[in-house]
Amino acid sequence: MKLTCDSAPLLTFLALVKLGLHRANKVVDFPFSLSDRPQELVRIEVDADAAGADEMVVRLYPSDRLLRFAATAGAGNLDDAGV
User: Fold this and answer.
1) Cα 79 vs. chain centroid, distance in angstroms?
2) Side by side, which strands form the sheet with 42-47?
3) DSSP at 52
4) Which of 23, 43, 44, 50 could share a disulfide with 61, CB 3.0–4.6 Å?
5) Is the pTM of this model over 0.90?
6) Residues ≥6 apart with Cβ < 8 Å to 60
7) Which of 78 and 60 is assigned the larger pLDDT?
8) Closest CA to 9 of 49, 53, 52, 47
9) Cα 71 to chain center, whole Å?
10) No. of H helices and E strands in the chain?
């Protein structure tokens, strides 16, 4: 069995957030730490049927909490960015 990890959706989202904050000239404390559970940052979807019976694709997406953080920080609501 072949296992493929597609992190492009998550990495693209993080790059866009970084670019948006950089363009807005904002510095925001990231309200997550390395001790947080992975599901605080990442939503995982597994697709075993995508590429055939002998392959499984795991896709990484930003979690709802990470999406809320980006929305509040991007809107300038830095007091609420700690979601």
Assistant:
1) 21
2) 2-6, 55-62, 42-47
3) -
4) 43
5) no
6) 5, 6, 7, 9, 10, 42, 43, 44
7) 60
8) 47
9) 12
10) 2, 3
Q: Assess contact for 32 and 17: CB atoms under 8 A.
A: no
Instruction: Please give the backbone phi and psi of residue 60, each rounded to the nearest 5 degrees, phi first.
Output: -110, 125
Reported residue count of the chain is: 83
Please report the beta strands in 1-83, taking only residues with DSSP state E, as ranges in sequence order.
2-6, 42-47, 55-62
Measure CA 6 to chain center: 12
Is the distance from CB of 20 to CB of 73 less than 8 angstroms? no
Separation of alpha carbons 73 and 83, rounded Å: 10
Which two tokens mark 47? 């697709």
| pLDDT tens sequence across 6-42 | 999 999 988 888 777 777 676 666 666 656 677 778 8
d(CA 50, CA 45): 12
Q: Give dist(CA 64, CA 59) in Å, integer.
A: 15
